[in-house]
Amino acid sequence: MKSTKHIAQLTLDCVIFGFHHKKLKLILSKLKLAEEIYALPGGFILQEEDIEDAAKRILFERTSIQDVYLEEFGTFGRVNRMSDEEFQLFSGLAKELYPDVEPPVNEENKKMRIISIGYYALVDFEKVIPKKIDLDESVGWYDINELPKLIFDHQEMVQKGLKVLQENLDKKLLFNNLLPETFTLKDIQELYETVYGKAFPANNFQKKMLDLQILERLDKKFTGAKSKAPYLYRLKSNK
Amino acid sequence: MKSTKHIAQLTLDCVIFGFHHKKLKLILSKLKLAEEIYALPGGFILQEEDIEDAAKRILFERTSIQDVYLEEFGTFGRVNRMSDEEFQLFSGLAKELYPDVEPPVNEENKKMRIISIGYYALVDFEKVIPKKIDLDESVGWYDINELPKLIFDHQEMVQKGLKVLQENLDKKLLFNNLLPETFTLKDIQELYETVYGKAFPANNFQKKMLDLQILERLDKKFTGAKSKAPYLYRLKSNK
Fold this sequence. Notes:
The structure is a homodimer of 239-residue chains.
Chain A: E1 6-20, E2 23-31, E3 38-39, E4 42-46, H1 51-63, E5 69-76, H2 84-97, E6 115-122, E7 136-143, H3 154-171, H4 185-196, H5 202-211, E8 215-220, E9 231-235
């Protein structure tokens, strides 16, 4: 096996979360295969690339945006995380598109397992238009509650990514990464309710948010009905 | 490069925590090198081994115990996490001891980077006698606040492992994994104070612990002075 420019048995897959119309969505690629199979955006890690930089590169390839919240949520390394059938399908496609990139096989031409590092990214849905790469028949946003058939253990990766997002959304106050620059208190609440899949009493929730003293109040949101318009907020800058 | 039985560029390192005499300790190997350099217990991941099983195997090799709390805390993948000098030292030693295990080098005989997955384990200090493997001149317990010089980025791994332990000790109520089967409320408090590096008011802390209703009260601890002896507790079984 000749030496290649990427690490043979290690990839990185991204769960790219966006929030839109009270739905938590993520970016999926529909692979160029006869069967309808979807995959998380991912790829090999280059030999001369920090893992964190690989995550940024893959994210940029699919979203054209930089400087977004990005965090590792675990390694996926079961020996049988890729079935032989799916491995054949996927590596056949990859070989066709990227003849230089050899799939990991040993001397007996048997597949060698691939381990994947999971990252999640939080992006402003309004700012991101998902971008195709060669592997993709199409690429787009999908509601986390209505996912199509995912390849390998990507369904498991999504669930773990969601779990870690739930743990961190409150602890690390990540909500602003999923909202536009300015938002109403109701926007934050709807985001929390969507991510946690449950309702929060409005008064308590909004008081708690204001008590954190991290929000800067701006003008009222223009809704046409001026008197009842809610205030817009943005995150105080950390000067 | 001939195919080997382990994944070429991926290892796993364990931060094995124990608690003893108000100190948080971890197991380190003093490597068989002229220089005095220490390392976390670790090793390659075998081709036919789930990552979780690799962690259990490595833990068993160094502690002879099984069924302990074990959790991944992150991947360490900076391109330069191993200096050339340390890589030479370590792979020289490894080659001497394990001639079958080839260090990862490319066709030009240049070192190829290794990425490591970090796990932390929580063990009952009283039950574990650290065990040497071929690489070790000695192996033993070291106070986390007085660590010797560690190889590669192992110092960084320890700090990240500690941070994740701090986050999880309370959230996941892990204290019993670091204590003997029976313990006093003061033992728990001392463990918390050591892990978080700060004092907790005794009344509040002990009331909070009892309010969780997860502890079963046993007899008083035998101390000689019967009247003031504290009660022993153990975790209620989850039947």
